[in-house]
Each structure stands twice: as structure tokens, then as C-alpha cells.
Amino acid sequence: AAMRSRAEVDATLQTAKLNPAELLPAVQCLSFGPQAGGGECCLLQLEPGLCAELEAGRSLVIRGEKDEHAVLCSKDKTYDMKIADTSNMLLFVPGCKTPEELNADGASCNIIYSQIAGFSKNYWELRRCRPKLKKLRKLLMEDPYEGPDSRKDQTSTFSKYTTEDLLSLIQASEEEILHQLEVIDACKIEGYWRILDFDYEMKLLNHVTQLIDSESWPFSKVPLRVCLEELGSLEPREMIEHILLSYGRKYVDDGEIFFEMREDKICRAIAQMLLQNAVKFNLSEFEEVWQQSVPEGMTTRLDQLQGLALVDKSSRPETIFLLKVEDLPEDNQERFNSLFGIRQKWTEVDITPYIQDLCGEKQTVGALLTKYARSSMLNGVKVYNSRRPIS
């Protein structure tokens, strides 16, 4: 009964053996309103930072295609969405007064009649997660850019993607997507995001390094203006600038734009070019050819190849082969399965570049190894192997 009298309320308290003196004087009588069906309302639990986003008028977006697990994104973060069941029924009561509000009200012995507008037995719980960015590279690699003269580009039937397209397809926040586009050296061509075909990229890089060599410029001071003037007849000027941005650090000196070329990245790209044509390469032969192939004045080091190539120390002679971290699965368990399929036992030094990107905000490589691998000693060296049999 919604319309209870004070006498009925007091009788109920007496039956429940509750002392009215210990309670607030106000009583809320609840009744279900005509539209109080369950299921129309969803509850979302927000951390203070996300709450502030909404209060400031910014929006949160739920992203994912039909076959994907939904994620929620703010401008710069991504959250997994999980349904959490509660043992208590959660009631939605418009204009509901909390005990604190009633206390401040100082109302004496009043009865408040409240209607329940809806109820829920669960709510969505958000958990900060790594943005799911692997798909970004996959989409752009469907149709890599081979240069302005490419016939393929004029007849291509593949989709091309604008920023809006990527925002609707990739489960990550806008800032995370834009940052990843930078990481994978994507560039905008006619309004669409593209990745350069690797051979075309190497051709552009070669033009730049040959010009640096012929002009005897230091790698730390390569002038943009002269590069564009000299190479503009060979390739589009925006492509020359893009390759300088990808392989150099831009700075301004005395009003002119210069680039400091990144030795490690250039050496790494040339190693990839050499390794992609062989299944395995004799390590000492590779090191020799590699050093001869990089621009004069640059020094090659194996640590430039972390997450790109793997040395097999157990074979005689030692070999090296291409193993790119971006080709491995994004899911933690699948990633470890894949790695243990390639090699049964790993040292921490060897496996780290291949699992580093799986670490969450406060997670370490050590914690991942503890969870997904078991350790043992091999010839005095700690090695890790799979916790489960690999088929």
C-alpha cells in the first residue's frame, strides 16, 4: 500500500522491533510506478575522471563491431565493459532523498510517497584496458600506398579509411588511434590514412640517404627545403617530407626546418629489407652485409632489431630470422601460445620485446611471465616455457 498512515508505519516498526528514536523521523513509502519494468535502464559505473568528462559536456563512446566485445572510450582512454550482477535489487527512484538530505531538511515525522521508475539486478563495470589497435594496421595494410605512379592505386577496389572511418572501426579512443597512426608511420593522402608499401618506403629513404651522402651533410642537420628542391622532381614533395618525419626528428634552427636522422630506425629498416627475402640468415654473414648496406657513418647493432628479428643461438652457426611483434596475436594467451610455438624455451631478454606491448598501465613483463609461463634453469640461465601444452 503506497498511502500508509503514520500509525501503520509505527506498527510496522514495532513488529520489526525497531526503536523509532534511533531512526530519522521521515519515512519513504515506495510503490512501483506504471512504467517500472526492468530492462529498459542500464547502469554504468564511472570512475571520478570519467564522471567529470560527462559533467563537462564531453561524450563517451561505445565502440565495436557485432562480433567484438564492446569497449567504452573517452577522448584518450579505453575501457572494457563487463556486466556485474548484484545480489541487491537496484531501484531507480526519481527525486529520491538520501538520509543526508533528510537530516538537513529537519522535517519532523513526515511521510514521503515515492514511485519506483525502474529497477536493475546488474550494472556495467568499466575496467581500463589496452586499446585494441592491431586492427588499425591490418586495415591499412589491405591497400598500402605504392606511390603516385602505381596502377594498382588507380584501380584498387579496397576500402580507404578517413579518421571518422577508423573511429567507427577501431576499439580505441581518438587520441590512442591518432598516436598509433604516428607510431606506424601512416600518412594522409587525399584525406585517407595510408601506410606506405615497404619497397616504396625504402625507395624514398634511399633517395634521402643518397642526397645526404652526396651533399656531405651531418645526419644531425638535414635541411628540409633543399631535400624538397632536390628530390621534388623524383617523388611528391609531401612523400619526401613524410619520410623525413618518419626517420628523423624535426626541429627549427634560425627560421629553417631541419631533421636529425634517427640512426637506429634507419639501420632497423635496412635490416628488415635484407631479412625479408630469406627464411634464415647466417648471423655473422648478415651482420657483415647489414653494416655494408647502411649509410656510411652509421653503426649497426643487434639491439636495434628488438621486436623485429630473433637470433637463434642454439643453431650452428648461429642464425637470425625475421619475427615482427606486430604480426603476433593481440590477446595475451594467444600471444604466449604463438611465441612458445616458435621457440619452446625463452630467456627474459629474448622474450621481452615480444610481450612488452601487452603490459597494462601498472603491469610489468615479470608479472606477465609469472602468469603465462613457468621458469626453470638451463645451463645456469633462467628460461621460460609454456604453462600449458602447445599443440
UniProtKB/TrEMBL annotation:
GO biological process terms held by the UniProt record: DNA replication; maintenance of mitotic sister chromatid cohesion
Pfam families, per the entry: Dcc1
Keyword ATP-binding tagged: no
Keywords, comma-separated and alphabetical: DNA replication
InterPro entries hit by this protein: Dcc1 (IPR019128)
One GO cellular component term: Ctf18 RFC-like complex
UniProt record similarity statement: Belongs to the DCC1 family.
Protein name: Sister chromatid cohesion protein DCC1
Organism of provenance: Helopsaltes ochotensis
